[in-house]
């Protein structure tokens, strides 16, 4: 049991370890989630969520000799979200074609785009959008794991960003990573590619890029992404032209040709009587 749980005055009897790998540990403690990371990333995410006024944010801090961003570890405390990830939400659409699954897939797309539009309107790019980073909770849609988020003028603890998960990385970001060892700037346009990749991957259960040599690891994956080795349309489980057009627009090679998140959200007509709230909220 991590000593931070006791230090923060949380109930150790309620602590349930959910994740512990690659320097990140996550506990569920009653109606709270506690994330602990080596270095600054949990604290950095806390700074961003606090600035955004995000509803599920509770507290964050640093664990180390100086109790600042240069400390050994950082932590983030959140309200537990009883939500469904985009990956799980689109699983029925992967299994079968019906009017219900079509409507649900488009509604999920609309709500995810609307949540991303609010983040972009506040001046932030997510930087690491993945299917598990979109959570649908009753009438709310949440974007989580904002540790890599960037704003052009807001100061938060800095770090060397080298992109997020390869499967959802935009080609221009992949090319920039391969071309240098410098910090990579996250952009709203790259987030749109990532959203399209999340939708395709969650629907088809395959990434939008075909990797020539999977054994080549992340560098090989990034090279294939930068070269736009697109997965064939036949990997779709069944034809869904309206959904495929949305995904194709998001996955446009030229960032300027991609819709904005707001354009994407407003292009999808809400169901009668259905309204949603989105989080993070605009600052």
Radius of gyration: 19 Å
Give the name of the CATH architecture of the largest domain: Orthogonal Bundle
Helix % is 25-40%
- SSE string, helix = H, strand = E? HEEEHEEEHHHEEHHHHHE
**Amino-to-carboxy terminus distance:** 35 Å
Number of helices: 10
Sheet with the most strands, sense and barrel status: 5 strands, antiparallel
Q: What CATH first level of the largest domain would be assigned?
A: Mainly Alpha
Characterize the overall form: globular
In the CATH hierarchy, the third-tier topology of the largest domain is known as Transferase(Phosphotransferase), domain 1
Main β-sheet, spatial strand arrangement: 1-2-3-5-4
The number of domains is 2
Strand content: 15-25%
Give the averaged pLDDT, no decimals.
Answer: 92
Poorly predicted runs are 271-275
Query: How many strands in all?
Result: 9
Structural class based on helices, strands and sheet pairing: alpha+beta
Look at the structure and name the CATH superfamily of the largest domain: Transferase(Phosphotransferase) domain 1
